[in-house]
Write a structure and sequence with these properties.
Blueprint lengths: L1 H31 L6 H19 L1 H27 L4 H23 L15 E5 L2 E4 H23 L1 H11 L1 H6 L4 H24 L8 H16 L4 H19 L5 H7 L11 H4 L3 H4 L3 H12 L11
Antiparallel strand pairs: 1-2
Helix pairs in contact: 1-5, 1-8, 1-9, 1-10, 2-3, 2-4, 2-8, 2-9, 3-8, 5-6, 5-8, 9-10, 9-14
């Protein structure tokens, strides 16, 4: 029972971090139809900016300043990069964001080097938050969950209760009508792209010190973000939320389990021996296969429900 509760809490906290990342990508795709390959690079920039700012003025100012800086960079990228290549179609946009990811990674190498930096959890957020049987649940995990939920509520309120949110929702399906009513649709695009980058930067601020801040962090988390978006449904924020929690719990639980298919078969009376076809495959522990499970889930979703769990448009 203790294992289940602790892993569930860890899975929810990791899933909420994934949602913070995937929500920005989902918003950008919903509004602009752009699948931003550089989205995880903004996550990395958020972590590095927070590291740099926190060494000067502390973690809490970095929690505000770093996402704003990343959002500003995102708006510049949209205004002077994506908007220029948009006329050449989606392939040009994909190539642009793909190249941008490499440029950001090389810039990080030049400024901060190739080794991991010591971006640490602030002392005020160290220690246990509460006890789960004999285990102590850390304060920072709870802080990550709090920031993620606050971000989720903020997005929902902004999209449903503010004027700019209504304009954004209208621009999703009727951009020409919105522009005819006097709204600057290109500016809306720029703000949404910058907002998506800022959300990724915020995830980097709270995730960089919980895990590791190094130049390969974007490549490590990037594929998982796209899995979340595909499983949840392209362009669906609700789907991204469900998929994030699902994949977060799936990976967290599987890492802590040493179950094998051979053990499962043994329960039904079929024993795997050296002569059994694919014997080595059936004997792989679930913990060892954990990194592959989200991609297996994505393949199954694409086979049986190509639009994703809550998707409303074909991906």
């Amino acid at each position: 029972m203790e294992f289940f509760v602790v892993q569930l809490l860890n899975g929810i906290s990791y899933g909420l971090l994934l949602f913070m990342l995937s929500s920005g990508l989902t918003l950008v795709f919903s509004l602009m139809g752009v699948l931003n390959f550089a989205h995880a690079s903004f996550y990395m920039l958020g972590a590095y900016f927070a590291f740099q700012i926190s060494t000067r003025i502390g973690f809490y100012p970095a929690l505000v300043a770093a996402p704003l800086l990343v959002g500003g960079i995102g708006m510049l990228v949209e205004r002077y990069g994506l908007r220029t290549v948009h006329r050449y179609g989606h392939v040009a946009e994909l190539l642009f964001t793909f190249g941008l990811a490499y440029l950001i990674e090389e810039a990080v190498h030049l400024v901060w080097g190739r080794a991991a930096v010591e971006y640490r959890i602030p002392p005020s957020l160290e220690g246990p938050l509460f006890a789960v049987f004999t285990s102590q649940y850390p304060i920072y995990r709870g802080f990550m969950m709090l920031v993620s939920v606050a971000m989720l509520v903020s997005i929902w309120l902004a999209l449903t209760r503010t004027r700019i949110g209504l304009v954004i929702q209208a621009a999703l399906s009727h951009p020409q009508t919105v522009e005819a009513l006097g709204h600057n649709v290109p500016r809306v695009f720029m703000l949404v792209f910058g907002g998506g980058a800022a959300l990724a930067g915020l995830a980097g601020v709270i995730g960089g010190n919980a895990f590791v801040t190094e130049p390969g962090m974007a490549a490590a988390v990037g594929p998982i973000i796209f899995v979340v978006v595909v499983v949840g449904g392209m362009g669906s924020l609700a789907g991204a939320f469900v998929a994030s929690l699902l994949i977060g719990c799936l990976q967290t639980f599987s890492v802590g389990l040493d179950w094998t298919l051979a053990g499962l078969f043994a329960r039904f009376g079929w024993r795997v021996t050296a002569d059994t076809p694919l014997a080595s495959l059936w004997s792989i522990p679930l913990a060892q296969a954990a990194p592959v499970l989200p991609y297996l889930l994505m393949v199954l979703i694409l086979i049986f429900r190509p639009r994703g769990l809550l998707g409303t448009r074909e991906g």
